[in-house]
Automatic annotation (TrEMBL):
Similarity comment text for this entry: Belongs to the amiloride-sensitive sodium channel (TC 1.A.6) family.
This protein's UniProt keywords: Glycoprotein, Ion channel, Ion transport, Membrane, Sodium, Sodium channel, Sodium transport, Transmembrane, Transmembrane helix, Transport
Protein name from the UniProt record: Acid-sensing ion channel 1-like
Domain of life: Eukaryota
GO-annotated cellular components: plasma membrane
Classification via InterPro entries: ENaC
Annotated organism of origin: Panagrellus redivivus (Microworm)
GO molecular function: ligand-gated sodium channel activity
Amino acid sequence: MSLQLLLFDFVDWSSASGIPQIAYAVSTLFRLAWIVICLVLFAVLLYQSASIFLKFLTYPSAIVTSLNYGSIPFPVIYICNSNPLRLDYIDQYKTTDFKDLYNWANQYSAMLSSNWGDVSPDDYGINNGLDRYDKTLRGRETIVLLMAQLTTTQLDKAANKASAFIRNCNFNNAECNSNNFTSYYDATYGACFIFNIDERRETQRAGSNYGFHFLMVVNQVDPKGNRIFLPVTDSAGVYISIQPKGGDPAMETFGIGAPVGQNTQIGMTYVSQ
Ligand SMILES: *[C@@H]1O[C@H](CO)[C@@H](O)[C@H](O)[C@H]1NC(C)=O
């Protein structure tokens, strides 16, 4: 068998579509043209194979992101009045349980009335404050120290009451009220209130409609114009701390201040891994 016959046999039976054309070309010119076309296409084949191989060597990866919606645990909400005790209740026990707090509150009020000037007598170092800011800070510290000397039973007499403080609330479109809150004592803010202490509530959807709404009453003066809270009045409002399961309210550090007369919205993002 000659080489020519062998080659002819190959191109005749080849399933690569251009090659049989070489065998059956009508003239040498066509045959040359088909040879050139086949060589060019073979070069393209090599080029594509090489580029696929090189791409493989970069080890590309595909990441598929999927969002799985489901209910997630709702955090625990801690709420404190920025004024820890009510002056009108302190007034009722001014010679017994709250003797010191009452004296201090009177001297502090006198200092406020004299436009942050010196007072006499000054049993609690109010005059040592350098300026308005320093005096307010010292005032807050004095309340903390004086409160720390009281027992819970004594504190209860002048603490904010849930029923007077929490006007109404709503979670996930379900009504709730002050009975849905539990109270605890914070060293700085006195009686504070907790929603979802049992951590059983869940939320299914994002957005403020499916969250927790509440209305607080934070009075500073009674209808007759008398101060009804301790007279550190620079920041009337509430402090709110939102913590995940088992978190620490850490009101002093993480508390978010909400002023009176305002609608405060707090949004959270939830990340799971
Ligand atoms: C509030 O408490 C009541 C009575 O225990 C309960 O039926 C209701 O579901 C609670 N509300 C919320 C929003 O948890």
